[in-house]
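Q: Please design a sequence for this.
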């Protein structure tokens, strides 16, 4: 009996000695435009923070349901883990140690209590001179271990990524433990069983000179997560973590202060905000800057930039061509390090317009696909820009259906000399549908007569007032049909003498639905401004004949009868029409239904609906 008890005691001691404390791995799947993700992620992050010695977190930003810049920067590695390996089909989702899908305190505690057959050490070193990182992972098994179809996985992470405004549509601005790159690839590196054929077997994985991806937001946030995983069962045997650390000589361009729009042939007065994110005081650095993809120019910085502080550096005046541009600024050779690798690059957009303003009527129907056009400027603080759409044979669209609430997009038109236009007026076609009453997207039109230094709002509509069908909601992405468009006319008599008028269309998303603009006309006031009350369509409903009457203003008019798909049924052209005009279309052979009458003059369009019975 004593021998049996002694044998049992020895067995327990050996089992204890060969059983290693595991670090639990939580892999989660999220997305910057996923509403439920934004609701659940704070609780998950709190759970991870509450268990720093028990669990290490890794988050994959997937490609759906909307915009996510972190996924766009490395979609391949994310897809390999989310789709190919785990077959995750919805977000948010999470996996604990490869098999358990329930990320709770109880699940972490239960898994933490399961001994691991191996130990793991993990260390990394960032080299700012070469912009690379070295990583060493060592796996040790105190007892004989016979792994099969097992790999060591290694992920570069950014511990914290913080945006000034939400990069997607769910409102999240802070993201944690985001997977940025799998090393050497998502397939991992094979664990060789023969290395563990005897007690205290080890296998070391060394990664040297790994290039740091250019899309990393903050080098101080680079860390690594490693784990040993059985590809057959997907069980994770052990995980390891190498935490980020503050680098010695590390600085970034935190932002650039420059006028969004200027007149002239040069960029003047731009300031780069230098931010010391390293441990050492920065006393010298080379500031590198370039316009678009042009030649990089340099200027020296000298000072006493202590850790965490900022300093404004004036970019020397730089000659530009007329049009839209980007300015990129980055640092090299901090504190005489000799490094030529770009560090902390920041890029902003601006426009310098040096053309003579148009002296004739301005008209834009967006039929050309080469948008933005010469001397136009498209900008957005969130990079959520207006784009050209094929709707209405060409128009511009602001995707408020996708863009997060508060996102702003602006389109600057080429400058116009209003003083050369008799009785100038602004008109444009607009189409919008509400998602719901609570989502009030906004369209503004603003004008500047001093080259963008100050702006005056001349048009604003939002929500139901902007919609072409107030109170009728659409919960899918909106694309207008011909019947949806309406023409807005804006009185600009107060600036009729301006020799350099700059107009911009500004959309503000409330995460509702899309806004479209077309047929922008700045010219002699057309039928909408002069004789709206005299524009009539009768009889309505019509049976065999429909009449269109209006007051002509010594200009040409195109009158059309169209179906709701925009197909022209009949049309007529009046040249240099003056005084009362009446145009008639026979409807005897026209199918019953709703139709649209359009009158076009100088690029401006007036529409009215008519029913054929």
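A: Design:
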């Amino acid at each position: 009996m004593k021998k049996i008890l002694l044998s049992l005691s020895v067995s327990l001691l050996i089992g204890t000695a060969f059983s290693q404390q595991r670090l639990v791995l939580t892999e989660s799947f999220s997305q910057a435009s996923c509403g439920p993700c934004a609701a659940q992620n704070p609780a998950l992050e709190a759970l991870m923070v509450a268990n720093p010695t028990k669990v290490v977190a890794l988050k994959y930003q997937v490609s759906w349901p909307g915009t996510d810049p972190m996924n766009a920067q490395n979609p391949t590695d994310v897809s390999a883990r989310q789709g190919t390996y785990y077959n995750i089909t919805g977000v948010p989702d999470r996996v604990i140690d490869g098999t358990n899908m329930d990320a709770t305190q109880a699940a972490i505690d239960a898994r933490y209590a399961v001994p691991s057959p191996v130990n793991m050490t993990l260390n990394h070193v960032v080299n700012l001179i070469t912009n690379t990182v070295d990583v060493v992972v060592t796996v040790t098994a105190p007892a004989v271990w016979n792994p099969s179809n097992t790999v060591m996985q290694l992920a570069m992470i950014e511990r914290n990524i913080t945006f000034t405004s939400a990069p997607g549509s769910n409102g999240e601005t802070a993201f944690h433990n985001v997977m940025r790159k799998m090393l050497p690839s998502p397939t991992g590196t094979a664990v060789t069983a023969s290395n563990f054929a005897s007690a205290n077997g080890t296998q070391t994985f060394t990664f040297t000179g790994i290039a740091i991806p250019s899309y990393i937001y903050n080098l101080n946030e680079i860390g690594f997560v490693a784990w040993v995983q059985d590809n057959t069962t997907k069980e994770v045997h052990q995980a390891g973590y190498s935490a980020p650390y503050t680098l010695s000589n590390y600085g970034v361009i935190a932002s650039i202060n420059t006028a969004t729009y200027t007149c002239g042939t040069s960029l003047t007065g731009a300031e780069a905000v230098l931010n010391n994110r390293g441990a050492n005081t920065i006393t010298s650095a080379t500031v590198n800057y370039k316009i678009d993809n042009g030649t990089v120019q340099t200027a020296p910085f000298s000072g006493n930039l202590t850790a965490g502080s900022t300093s404004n550096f004036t970019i020397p005046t730089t000659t530009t061509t007329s049009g839209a541009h980007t300015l990129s600024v980055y640092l090299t050779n901090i504190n005489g390090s000799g490094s030529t690798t770009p560090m902390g690059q920041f890029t902003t957009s601006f426009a310098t317009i040096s053309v003579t303003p148009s002296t004739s009527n301005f008209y834009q129907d967006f039929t050309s696909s080469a948008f933005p056009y010469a001397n136009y400027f498209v900008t957005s603080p969130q990079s959520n820009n207006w784009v050209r759409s094929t709707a209405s044979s060409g128009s511009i669209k602001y995707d408020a259906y996708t863009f997060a609430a508060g996102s702003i997009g602006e389109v600057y038109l080429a400058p116009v000399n209003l003083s050369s236009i008799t009785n100038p007026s602004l008109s444009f076609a607009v189409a919008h549908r509400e998602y719901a009453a609570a989502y009030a997207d906004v369209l503004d039109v603003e004008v500047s007569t001093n080259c963008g230094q100050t702006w005056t709002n001349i048009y604003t509509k939002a929500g139901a007032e902007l919609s072409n069908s107030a109170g009728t909601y659409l919960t899918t992405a909106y694309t207008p049909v011909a019947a949806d468009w309406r023409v807005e006319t804006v009185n600009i008599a107060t600036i009729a003498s301006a020799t350099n008028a700059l107009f911009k269309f500004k959309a503000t998303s409330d995460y509702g639905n899309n806004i479209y603009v077309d047929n922008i006309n700045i010219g002699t006031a057309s039928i909408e401004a002069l004789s709206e009350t005299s524009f009539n369509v009768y009889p309505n409903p019509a049976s065999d004949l429909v009449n269109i009457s209006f007051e002509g203003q010594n200009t040409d008019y195109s009158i059309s009868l169209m179906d709701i798909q925009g197909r022209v049924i009949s049309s007529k052209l009046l040249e240099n029409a003056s005084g009362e005009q009446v145009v008639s279309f026979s409807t005897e052979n026209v199918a019953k239904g709703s139709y649209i009458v359009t009158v076009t003059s100088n690029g401006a369009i007036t529409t009215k609906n008519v029913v054929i019975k």
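Q: Thanks. Anything notable?
A: DSSP finds seven helices and 37 strands in the chain. The chain has four domains: 22-242, 251-353, 362-525, 529-612.
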